[in-house]
Amino acid sequence: MSRSLLLLLQLGILCSLPAQNYYLPLDSLVDNASAWENLVEAGASLDYNANTIYNELTYAVWSGQFLDRDLRQRSLDAMRSRNSVGFDQSFHLSWTGALGLWGRHHWRPLIKAAHHDMMGTRFTSDVFELAFFGNAGFEGERADLGPSAHSHVRYQSLGAGILDDRSGSFVRLDLLLGQSVEQADIRWAGIYTAEDGRVIRATLLGEYQLSDTAGSEFGRNNGMGVSFSGRWNTVLKGLGSTTLSIGLEDFGLIRWNEHSVALSKDTVIEFLGWDVANILDLDNVLIGEDQLIDTLGLRYTPGAFTSYAPLVLTLSLEKQLAPGWRGGLEVMQRYLPGFIPQVTAFASRRLGTRSLLGANLSYGGFGDLRLGLSGRMRLGDRVWIHLSTPNLPGFLLGTTRGYGMQGGLMVGF
Asked: For the chain, what is the domain count?
C-alpha cells in the first residue's frame, strides 16, 4: 500500500518543460534577434518538488529498492502541518513568424503545440504514516486524513496568437484536448482503530472525479476545452528602466466526456467484525468486491463534468544591474492543490557575446528553498541551446527535496 500511495503522490517525476528559460532574460548580443525572421523552438523539461518527502525515498521507489523503516521514518519525521508534492512536465514545439502580421510592422504570428502533465497534492502527516506504516501506530487514536486534496491532469494544447516585437508582450488562444484527469477534495476524513483492533471507524466528507476509465494513453481524447494565455511587458522608467511583466498561462476550462465518473460521500463507516450464524455455511459469509462496494456505498456516478485548466499567474520585475548583468524578482502562483505562491530572485551574466549564465533562488511552490542554475549559448548566428535546473542540490544529495531539468533548441531562419 505504501508503494502505491507514493506513486500517486509523486508520479511523473521524470520529464517537464515550461516556456521560460528558468529566469534567463533576453539579451541583445547573445540572442541576436536581428539575425532571423522566423524562430522555431523545441523543448522538454521536468520540475518536481516536495516540502517534506526526501528525494532518497523517491529514488528508492522508482528504482524498486526495498523501503526499510529508517528510510521511511526520515520522511515521516519531516512531516509538518503543510505537506505538499507536485510536478509539472511538458513538451512543446513553437513557431514565431516574421514581422508585419496584418500590416502591423511590430507584430509577429505565434503558433504553439504542447503536451502537459501536471500534478499537485496536499496531505496530512497521518496520510503518510498510514500509507507507509499501517494503522498499528494509531491503536486507540484517530488518524486524521483531511483536509487533503489531489489533482493530476494530462492534456495537449494547440494555439495561435500575436507577439508585439517591441515589448515582448503576446496573446494566444489555445484548443485543449483532455487526455485524463483525476481529482479529489477531502474536506474531512479520519480512521479510528480500537486498541484490540476489533473496531475500525471511518468518517469521510469529500468528492472524487475521474475521466473516462476506458483509457488514458497519449492520443486519447477524453475531453475538450479552450484557454487563454498572454503576457504584458512595460518599462517603468521611474524605477531605473525596470521591466514589469504580468503573465497568464492556460486560463480556461476542460469539459470531460459523459463516460467520466464521480463519487461524493458524507458518511460514517463502522466495522465491528463479522457475525456468522452458521460456521458451516460459508457460502453466505464470503463476499466479493461488488458486494463490499455496494455495502460501503462506493459506486461511481457516471456523467460529464467541467474542470479548470491548471492556471499559472506570474508577476516579475527585471532590470540591468551593471553592464552584462541583469537581475530581478518573480512571484508565481499555480492553480493546483498544495502549491503556495513561489518567490524567486534571479540574476544573469553575459559571457562574451554568445553565452548567458544565470542563477536563481526560490521559495514556495510545492517545496521550500531551492537553488537553480541556467545557461544559454548561441551556435553560429541562428542556433541556440539552453539547459537549466531549478534545484541543483536535488541531483547531488538524497536528503534534499525536489529536482528538475529543462533543455531546448531554438533555430532562426
From this structure: 1
